[in-house]
Amino acid sequence: MEWKIIDSLACPSTGTAFSIATSSKDIKLILWYKDSYFLRPGNIISTQSPEMLINGKPRDLKIIHAFPYDSQLWTSILHKTDCPGNIKAFHQPCANKRGCLFKLCPYGMKLYTPESVEV
Known about the structure:
mainly beta, seven-stranded antiparallel sheet, 1 helix, 9% helix, 33% strand, globular, disordered C terminus
């Protein structure tokens, strides 16, 4: 079965992410996962082989839980994740002062430091 990613959110306080995946039969799930790979809209997850494939390449995606999609649940997750990249209107560098457990920012931002501010 193939699943297309239609939206994703990062949760810096846990180092995990959430994605909405939809099947060809219009079944929607919210995937809660941990991986060094951040799923982006348009990515395709294939579960037809013994391995999980993302865009045709094997990945070791660690799915923590899958929920049936619910717009209120998705909105709640968005408001609780506290990642500037999730609102799609972030500015460089990242101003998340609460700490982030991602080794690499899923959105490609650099952590705010006094040295990162251009004068």
